[in-house]
Design brief:
The complex is a heterodimer of chains A (567) and B (245). Chain A is α+β, with helices and mostly antiparallel strands. Helices cover 24% and strands 34% of the residues of chain A. Chain A is built from 17 helices and 31 strands. In chain A, the strands form eight sheets. Chain A has a six-stranded mixed sheet, with helices on both faces. A six-stranded mixed sheet of chain A has the order 15-16-12-14-13-29. In chain A, strands 25-24-21-26-27 form a five-stranded antiparallel sheet, with no helix packed on it. In chain A, strand 13 and strand 14 (256-261) form a beta hairpin. Chain B is α/β, with parallel strands linked by helices and 245 residues long. In chain B, 33% of the residues lie in helices and 21% in strands. In chain B, the strands form five sheets. A three-stranded mixed sheet of chain B has the order 1-15-14, with helices on both faces. In chain B, strands 2-3-4 form a three-stranded mixed sheet, sandwiched between helices. A three-stranded mixed sheet of chain B has the order 5-6-7, with helices on both faces. The longest helix of chain B has 12 residues, at 229-240. Chain B starts with a strand and ends in a 5-residue tail after the last helix. In chain B, 51% of the residues are buried. Chain A binds chain B through residues 22, 46, 69-74, 76-82, 87, 90-92, 182, and chain B through 120, 122, 163-170, 183-185, 188-191, 211-214, 216-217. Chain A: Belongs to the NMD3 family. Chain A: It comes from Hibiscus sabdariffa (roselle). Chain A: It is found in: Cytoplasm; Nucleus.
Chain lengths: 567, 245
């Protein structure tokens, strides 16, 4: 390997080699030695000259080695106008330079932009519409982006808006640019670009204007039961998870709710959400609306039909024999305790709990025997605890023998076994199903030969008396509701029914903390806790503890459109 | 008096001419305009000599001289040397020197008393300069540039230097040269002063791009307004002639 030339050696050490060319051309006659501060090149031709080169531009180190004279720049006269100025590469004062060279020559000063008056957005070709307020950061970015091709030639230093009358349809932006001119001098100049706003409706606004009821996908949610408890609960769940955020219209129908979306994917997402919170079965279909033969594009209307299982909480169910055996011979009469995407069934006699998956349910679907509408009030005369406390799926139950009679008919006493031994005391009221008096037409029941039905099954404790006292008084909490269109064809009677059902739903929420778990309850600002209530109530009436309540958000302009408060 | 002219459409007059108090060298151009401009100003006073150096026309940058002598680089041909010796007055010593840095006009800035040279000039050359030109030699840089001959135009009355020269540097150079110095530009903002103009004690020639401001600066620093050629030449003659016989 031959010796490296000086130039290569210096290059290896990262020193600019332009200094080397003047030193020596002959390699043999020089040596390179390294020293603590740098390195030295000895040139022996024509006579020894020592040059010390510093590695790196460390001026501090230089100052410590040599005395450096402070340099102050003098002034020269501008070659054109003769005023005194600091020397610059062009040696002309800024004014003269500006008069000579115009760096904004060739840059656009007038640009046209499209603006949609409906949604206050601006078109960025070819297709994007950017929503921006007047004199906002987004609008400034958009304006500068429209000038991108121009700004490649110069360097943009600053951009700002100049105020224009909002109705003038003109935007003015002052741009400061820099460019190199003549021999190395960088000139900075500011200039104004005027944007003319042309009104042009964007596609989505055009579509909405043309047909305001235009939807692309709809989800028809149905539950074949006579009450609307499920839908009240679902409404709260949807609000909590914001699942219907993309819905353009929500319509309340008989036995269900219809949701309309502008996009098929939104509808699919909503259907999946429903599948996660309730046991559903869905079907979908599409209908051709228009067809463009030239580019083979098709416009469809998509419909999703979602059916929720008719089993609700507190329903009494007689399981078909197949299902009963598949669940391990669960006594044919069961109570449904919880419905999410699984159905929890509790046998009140044996206190066994089983879960039914959505698919499992729909494989062999069944209806409930008696629903919460058919609950009857019972008076409890005597309770005898039979078993110790069992913890079944998070809740405690105690089996007890009870002596009960219907409130409407004190004449007939029933001796029944109930699982509510932990909360019932003599003198309490309870709600339960009157199997003695019920006339059931269930096919499933007939399949069981030799089944002895209990005369009554108690479901829950009744707080009716205590509620009487509180009637008319506002609750300390409230719920939000979805903006739904209601079919006006139904009459007043329905409205009353709806109100009473809603009131029952609210009571349900008060009594069941696990039901409240998934929902958001808001503090009712109008509620004033009065002295009287706290004295007389005691601890019997279950109510929502204040810690669970969310502080109500101040309604903003946006929220007003979507939600409305209901007390 | 400062004159504006061009050599074959180039404003770099100092490249193609060399002006001193005793003679003037001019390059051979395509048309005679350049030569006649010098002639009209200087004909009666000093000889104007058309020449080339080593076959090139950039004579202003290749040679350095004052009223006492002229130094030419090693690649000057013998004929050119002879021509110069013939044409110039006898007092002017024409000397060819062997120097690695052959563009003597770029390396040496001199007037009749003092010279500034490139920092890397040979010691020998320095001695020859001191000898032939009769000057005191200082190695210096101007605004950090080592080519002092290009960035400085010097006469016995004053000097014009590179515009970026700092005030301390100006003071230092002024003390060395014992003449007033000013930092300025030539030919519409060009920093290469000596290439754009050539000057002696009573006249200056600048490129035609020179603005009025620059011209006024030149006239003031070189004190050209009240200068009369005859007075200066007579002064020279007086010092040259020892005695009347």
């Amino acid at each position: 390997m031959g010796r490296l030339s000086i130039k290569e050696k210096l290059l290896k050490w990262g020193v600019a080699t332009s200094a080397v060319c003047m030193l020596c051309e002959d390699e043999e006659e020089s040596q390179v030695i390294s020293s603590p501060n740098g390195f030295a090149i000895l040139s022996s031709f024509p006579f020894p000259l020592l040059f010390i080169l510093q590695i790196g531009g460390d001026k501090g180190a230089m100052a410590s080695n040599m005395f450096v004279v402070p340099q102050t720049r003098g002034t020269v006269l501008c070659c054109k106008c003769g005023i005194s100025m600091a020397p610059n590469p062009a040696n002309m004062c800024v004014t003269c330079l500006r008069s000579e060279v115009d760096i904004t020559e060739g840059l656009r000063k007038h640009v046209t932009i499209m603006h949609c008056p409906e949604c206050d957005s601006y078109l960025q070709p070819p297709r994007t519409w950017i929503k921006a307020q007047l004199e906002s950061k987004e609008l400034l970015t958009f304006c500068v982006k429209r000038l991108e091709t121009d700004l490649k030639k110069v360097r943009l230093v600053n951009a700002e808006f100049i105020w224009t009358e909002p109705h003038s349809k003109r935007l003015k932006v002052k741009l400061k640019v820099q460019k190199e001119v003549l021999n190395g001098a960088i000139l900075e100049q500011s200039y104004v670009v005027e944007y003319v706003q042309q009104d042009h409706m964007c596609e989505s606004c055009t579509r909405i204007q043309a047909n305001p009821d235009q939807w692309v996908a709809s989800v028809q949610l149905r539950q074949r039961v006579t009450h609307r408890r499920t839908f009240f609960y679902l409404e709260q769940l949807i609000l909590k998870h914001d699942a219907a955020a993309h819905a353009i219209k929500i319509k309340q129908m008989d036995q269900g709710i219809d949701f309309f979306f502008a996009n098929r994917s939104h509808a699919v997402k909503f259907v999946e959400f429903l599948g996660k919170v309730s046991p559903t079965k869905s079907r979908h279909d599409k209908q051709l609306v228009s067809h463009d033969p030239k580019n083979n594009s098709y416009n469809y209307k998509y419909t999703f039909s979602v059916e929720i299982s008719p089993i609700c909480r507190e329903d009494l169910i007689c399981l078909p024999p197949r299902v009963a055996t598949s669940l391990g011979n669960l006594g044919p009469l069961v109570i449904c305790t919880k419905v999410t995407n699984n159905i929890a069934l509790l046998d009140p006699i044996t206190l066994r709990q089983c879960f039914l998956d959505t698919e499992q349910y729909w494989r062999h679907s069944f209806k409930s025997l008696l629903g919460s509408r058919q609950l009857v009030e019972y008076d409890v005369f005597n309770i005898e605890v039979v078993s110790p406390e069992y913890n079944v799926g998070g809740s405690k139950y105690v089996i007890a023998d009870a002596e009960v009679a219907r409130v409407s008919d004190y004449g007939k006493l029933f001796y029944i076994r109930t699982h509510l031994g932990h909360i019932l005391k003599p003198g309490d009221r309870a709600l339960g199903y009157d199997l003695y008096g019920a006339n059931s037409n269930d096919i499933e029941l007939d399949k069981y030969k030799g089944l002895v039905l209990p005369e009554a099954i108690l479901i829950k404790k009744s707080y009716e008396e205590k509620r009487q006292k509180k009637r008319g008084k506002p609750r300390p909490w409230k719920l939000k509701s979805l903006d739904m269109e209601v079919d006006e064809s139904r009459g007043r009677a329905n409205e009353q029914k709806m109100d009473s059902e809603y009131e029952e739903f609210l009571r349900d929420l008060e009594e069941n903390p696990e039901l409240r778990f998934n929902l958001s309850l808001y503090r009712n600002k109008d509620y004033q806790p009065s002295e009287m209530v706290s004295v007389s109530d005691g601890d019997d009436l279950p109510s929502v503890p204040l810690e669970e309540l969310l502080a109500d958000l101040e309604l903003s302009e946006q929220e007003d459109g979507e939600d409305s408060m209901r007390e | 008096m400062a004159t504006r002219l061009q050599f074959e459409n180039s404003c770099e007059v100092g490249v193609f001419s060399k002006l001193t108090n005793a003679y003037c060298l001019v390059a051979i151009g395509g048309s005679e305009n350049f030569y006649s401009a010098f002639e009209s100003e200087l004909a009666d006073v000093i000889p104007v000599v058309k020449t080339s150096i080593s076959g090139t026309r950039i004579i202003g940058r290749l040679c350095a001289g004052n009223k006492n002598g002229l130094l030419v680089p090693h690649n000057t041909t013998d004929q050119e040397l002879q021509h110069l010796r013939n044409s110039l007055p006898d007092q002017v010593v024409v000397q060819r020197i062997d120097e690695k840095l052959s563009a003597l006009g770029n390396c040496i800035a001199c007037n009749d008393h003092v010279a500034l040279t490139h920092t890397d000039l040979d010691k020998e050359t320095e001695e020859i300069i001191a000898d032939v030109l009769g000057v005191e030699v200082f190695r210096q840089t101007i605004a950090g540039n080592i080519l002092v001959g290009s960035y400085c135009a010097l006469s016995n009355r004053g000097g014009l230097v590179h515009p970026h020269t700092s005030i301390e540097d100006l003071d230092e150079l002024s003390t060395l040269l014992q003449v007033p110095l000013v930092a300025g530009t030539i030919n519409r903002g060009s920093e290469v002063i000596a290439a754009g103009m050539t000057v002696n004690d009573w006249t200056a020639f600048c490129g035609s791009d020179t603005t009025a401001t620059e011209l006024s600066v030149i006239e003031s620093v070189f004190k050209l307004r009240e200068a009369q050629p005859t007075a200066i030449v007579n002064e020279m003659r007086n010092s040259l002639i020892d005695s009347y016989v």
